Amino acid sequence: MIMDKITKTRPLLISRPEVNARTAIRRFAVELSETAKLAWPMVLTQVGQIAMMTTDLAFIGRISTEALAAAALAGRFYFISVTFGVGLLSAIAPLAAQAFGANNLAAVRRTLRMGLWTALVLSFPIIAVALRAEQILLALGQAPDVARLAQQYLFGLGFSAAPALAFLAIRSFMGAVHRPQPVFWITLSAIPLNALLVYMLTYGKLGLPRLELFGAGLATTLVNCGMFLAGLWFAALRQPFRDYHVLAQLWLFDWRAMRQLIAVGTPISIASLIESGLFWATSLLAGLISTSALVAHQIAVQIAAILFMIYLGIGTAAAVRVGHAVGRRDTAGVKRANLAAVLIGIGIAAMLTLALIAGRFEIVELFLGRSARDSETIGLAAKLLIVGATLSITDAAQCIAAGGLRGLKDTRVPLLFAAIAWWLIGFSLSYWLGLKVGLGAIGIWIGLSIGTTIYAALLVLRFRHLTSRAH
Hints:
The chain is mainly alpha-helical. The chain has helices at residues 2-60, 65-89, 92-101, 105-131, 133-139, 144-157, 161-176, 181-203, 212-237, 255-289, 291-327, 331-358, 360-368, 375-387, 389-407, 412-436, 441-470.
């Protein structure tokens, strides 16, 4: 009898580590699945935004080459104007995610409310700057005709700041409560609608006046208004969002929630400006080398920007999942969430990078065509894509690590890392290798890749330090 009891209990003692291991594997598999479910609509939403911008440029390019150059310049001008607002509002996702993880619905609602207030307040200076764009561009030395056409485009596009930022706030809220699908479907529906409106208002179809660049900008503003109204309808009236009562006491200003939003979001905004400034500065370096180097550099930057938007969606998912774990005080869950996002992001980055290297000439030819006069530029741009392969993977790593740190509400130290890695190291190396050593545009991209790699490594070490200390 006694031996039978010992025999029956012995397997339980032996299998305890195995049970723990199986539990850990099962929990990680669940986390991997939940992160993937959250990330894919976020990634596709980012791709949808790129598709709308590309559609605008495609229709504008049929007006004239000068109109296309002006629209591209105006788009960059507008993007820099809204970058600060986008960075500030990106703090909504981790803050609302922590509140959601703690089952504090009132805090989720307050965070969104202050996000909508912030979007409204920030839109006024952005619109004011857009309406004075021609004078600003002339002061920066741009050609008068290009500045005039850019102003026409911004007269229509500038007013999209308010609905675009407000929709971003709603998008962050929906992602934080683990329901990003409505935003994806809204964006997917907006792509053909945007194309139709841009076509009709730019060329004057179906009885509408021919408004050219102003019409293209106006169409984008109208689509952004529609996206915001659709997002607000979902957030206010559809389940499960209706339980949050997001429009309740919308007029009340919550200083505590606003201070938290500013404290977390301002470093993100400044870091975004640092990154944008880095690529603008390296474009100036490439322009000092040759026109061919500048064109090749701009093509590589555009492709890197598209990939960055994909990685940004995964990074936002990481911020939300980490925020959920922080809210429920689950240190092990924080580590699982970050690891799951890293595996998904690096896996996607590796596949995209291999595809980019394999099809680099075909991709570059989409920008330049197969003209013999562009053969030198095509070859150089293709080389830059190979050099930038390291940047592509480490860019994914830094987006996800930054997202994880945002989930922990840690944004000030990453801002310091951005200044050190991108400017002190990355830009200095780009200048030295590109202009002093004589490697040209390839040297510039080696510097960018090294700077991004160091930034990613610093963020990963910072995340490990904070989670180890919490443990």
